[in-house]
Amino acid sequence: MDIVTHAVSGLVVAAALPKRPATRWTPFFFMLAACLPDFDILFASTPALFLNLHRGISHSVFAAPVLALLLAFCAWPLRRRQTRDRMSIRGLWLAFAACLYLHILLDCFTTYGTMAFLPFSSCRVRLNANFIVDLFMTLPLIGLLIAGAVLRHKARLLAGLGLAWLVLYPCFNMGVNALAGKNLAETLHAENRKVVEMSVLPDFFSPLFWRALVIEQTEDGYVEQEVSISALGSIRGAVQSFTPVPPALQAHLSAQSENCRDFFKLMLMPVYRPFSERGRKAAVVALSFLPPPHDDIRPGSGNKGNSGHNLRPISPDKADKLNFLLIHDLRFGSGLAFGRQLLGMRPNAGLPFMLLVVTDDEDNLLLERIIFRDAGRDTGWQSPEPPGPQNFGSWLLGLS
Q1: Are 200 and 210 spatial neighbours (Cβ–Cβ below 8 Å)?
Q2: For residue 400, how many other CB atoms are within 10 A of its CB?
Q3: Contact 104, 64 (CB under 8 A)
Q4: Which whole-number Å values give the CA distances from 145 to 150, 162, 243, 387, in the listed order?
Q5: Residue 195 pairs with which residues in a beta bridge?
Q6: Model confidence over 336-393: pLDDT tens digits?
Q7: Cα 130 to Cα 108: distance, rounded to the nearest angstrom
């Protein structure tokens, strides 16, 4: 969820307490507790760290008690003797833990996914109930808080309603999601279409609108389609078609590169397309700076070449035999024209997550690059680094 919803959820938890410290610091620390897991973005200085840290160990149900305890010790103004209705360390720990677990739950309701069970499992829990910014969730919470500030004798009751809304509304959306998906599947089946896989994702103004990603087997191969649907599963507007990344290719690239492995773990239903001509030329230049001479550019050829970064131009006929693939995920977008306009107004508009790879005719990975536009992260062109063994420290933090 967005940071505003998380902050408001912390205020709702504070308002639901039987007694809360009478200090101006109370709202600050409860909002801090509700937003604390997202501070992982401050440590994600590279795309590799972003893939492993964001919604990683800081969002783990096993790390939440530790983070809550640390914050309880830091919240001195809420437990000092001079503060009326001050709270004990234990009381603050429990209250802050509630904020943290609520944060984790809300993020699990989105499509991005949360590695809630690190370090024991890196599986991303994604329930596809809420869009990342959901006004139907946030505005009622703000309204209840304002009403509680006016009707002080009803503040706890209104806060309790807010906590119930934070859970019941996403659960209602999950039911609508299931209904819309069921109706769409029946429609496609009636049209004798061979659906291999389908995911129904929230869109702007869900539960009114949803996006369905459908992988269909056709005479020409597999096609992934993006479909905008209503709450009842009826198709709205034009259907867009894309080429899905075959599972075998995903596995092959993941075996050759840590970045590819982590990227595909984040993606839901990745698709690919060729580079633009400009991107292709840039990749060929980058490939020309790799140390191995390009009379044999396949990994494992036994030709070590000379060290250094001397330019070794690739001949056009060899470049024509290479594959230049831009891989992304349709999960991050909108099926509504209004939604696409809003997303296009972002400071770094475009595909938010991109994996660019150059492979030979046997799908051996020669060059890779990961770009996260919104986070401002870019690896630049680099040679693939094969996955290595994991030590205890990296396991504990959820780092691959």
Answers
A1: yes
A2: 16
A3: yes
A4: 9, 8, 47, 49
A5: 216
A6: 888 888 888 888 778 889 999 999 999 999 999 999 988 888 999 999 999 888 888 8
A7: 9
